[in-house]
TrEMBL record:
Protein name in the entry: Polysaccharide biosynthesis protein
Compartment list: Golgi apparatus membrane
Topology in the lipid bilayer: Single-pass membrane protein
Gene behind this protein: 25501752
Species name: Medicago truncatula
Iron-sulfur in keyword set: no
Domain of life: Eukaryota
Pfam families given in the database record: IRX15_IRX15L_GXM
Length: 297
């Protein structure tokens, strides 16, 4: 009888544990769905409805989510991992996306927990990710093969930030009037060996949330900030390039943003995110300031 009683107690214990696990899983999914709803919600309707309406206006497709949107919803609904940026920081980029009201070209430095979200915001446009760690790229793409990502080799280290800021002015290939990116090995701040697709695309939005910049040997974001400034200034099409820089509470990000992206181009700052609108250099050459091509700010 004691054996039977112990078996019965063990059975009840396992059953209760299984019920607890199932209950916690359900609560986790509900919590994740609530988070998605919060992220997607705007003042008058949801982001998903907004993106669907944009798809209908620009492509005349039916009002159903795309595969990348479905994967994003599934990912965030079943994962405890959330995007690195806060809701208010994400909203800054989201407001710009809504204002465009069309598919766009979006270049993102960093491949991580928010990548499916960024790609999901631009289902009919081009969204590319640049990541420093090739193993991490393989890991992420294994679970989300719809994402497009390239590995970037950086020539800088965070501990060189101060010296690079001083020395770039004496290097002709880094000068505001002559700086280029592709093949520019002389300027250490230039990302000179990116895939051709990066150079050949005019990016409407650029998010700089990588590479790592929190220890001395890390690449730092000096080259990313400089290179994206050069790319934005060389824009041939109409309009500005929206550049979003994260982690501006750190010294290097802040100093390099003020040196290259310029305070005058800063249109909004929320939390640790700054939003810049960089005009094309060609649009500024018609102004009365003849020196504008010889300086970044």
């Amino acid at each position: 009888m004691q054996v039977i009683e112990r078996t019965r107690n063990r059975y009840h214990f396992v059953t209760e544990n299984r019920c607890s696990v199932v209950l916690l899983s359900i609560l986790g999914i509900i919590g994740a769905l609530l988070f998605i709803t919060t992220i997607f919600q705007t003042s008058d309707n949801t982001l998903f409805c907004s993106l669907t309406r944009t798809n209908l206006q620009t492509t005349n497709q039916n009002p159903y989510p795309t595969p990348i949107q479905l994967r994003a919803l599934l990912h965030y609904a079943t994962s405890h991992v959330v995007p690195q940026q806060s809701f208010s920081e994400i909203t800054v980029t989201l407001d710009v996306i809504k204002s465009l009201n069309r598919p766009f070209n979006f270049l993102v430095f960093g491949l991580g927990h928010d990548s499916l979200m960024w790609a999901g915001f631009n289902p009919q446009g081009k969204t590319l990710f640049l990541e420093e760690d090739p193993k991490w790229v393989q890991t992420v793409l294994k679970d989300a093969p719809e994402l497009q990502a390239f590995t970037v080799h950086y020539r800088t280290q965070l501990q060189e930030a101060d010296e690079l800021l001083k020395s770039y002015k004496s290097e002709p290939s880094c000068s505001p009037a002559k700086a280029t990116l592709k093949g520019n090995e002389q300027c250490k701040l230039a990302l000179h060996n990116l895939p051709d697709e990066i150079y050949e695309t005019e990016w409407d939005l650029i998010m700089i949330d990588a590479p790592r910049g929190y220890f001395a040997e890390a690449p730092g974001r000096m080259a990313a900030i400089f290179s994206m400034t050069v790319m934005a200034r060389n824009r041939k099409g109409s309009g500005v390039t929206h550049v979003f820089l994260h982690d501006v509470d750190r010294k290097v990000e802040k100093v390099y943003a003020e040196e290259f992206l310029c305070r005058k181009n800063l249109v909004k700052g929320v939390g640790r995110l700054w939003h810049f609108e960089i005009p094309a250099l060609g649009n500024n050459l018609s102004s009365h300031d003849s020196s504008i091509g010889s300086r970044f700010c």
